[in-house]
Amino acid sequence: MRYDVDTVAQQDSDEVARAVVSVRRLTAAVAAARSDMPGLSALASRIHALADDLEARSCSAAERVNQMNTIGRIVRYSPVVGSANVLAAPLHLRHIGDGNEGTVTFSVAHQGSLGVVHEGFAAMVLDVALAEANMAAGVPAMTAGLMLRYHHPMPVCCDLTVRAWHVYVDGRKSWCRGEIWWEHDLCVSAEGLFIVPREGGARGQDRQG
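That's the Acyl-coenzyme A thioesterase THEM4 sequence above. Prediction below.
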């Protein structure tokens, strides 16, 4: 029997995505669990048993890497935007002109200081948002450097707005800027330097944003 690769991939994605949503909920619940919670030991045993079962059925790391060898699957399993990655919050972006805007909500599992998202997650999110801004401007490039400034704590369990835009390109160097906002407060701002691969070349025009 022949299988439609795209259909099988989509079915795999849907089932994995369903499992991922559940594991994200479980991760947040465990992070918020009290040490004196009644029945916690029994719950831990059930979780361990489920993990053992899933590990026994899962493919090897090498097989998974081979299956991810397409742009679509790389995005799907991204630790920032991936619907099939439990580490992703996830970030949801939409292109707007030569940039993008989106939202992300971090759970208590992303907490650093009390009630505050760990600053490292801001770097992950803005790295992707700036890279996507390059793509929107027609200048696909690789991250060379990020400079972040933290202005206001990012609260957990709140909708945060992420914005990024392409600034200009000079040869193989491309600059972008981005921000994370919570309501009317600027939480994080970033400037990024990206390098266009030699074989690709810059496709965009110089832009000021």
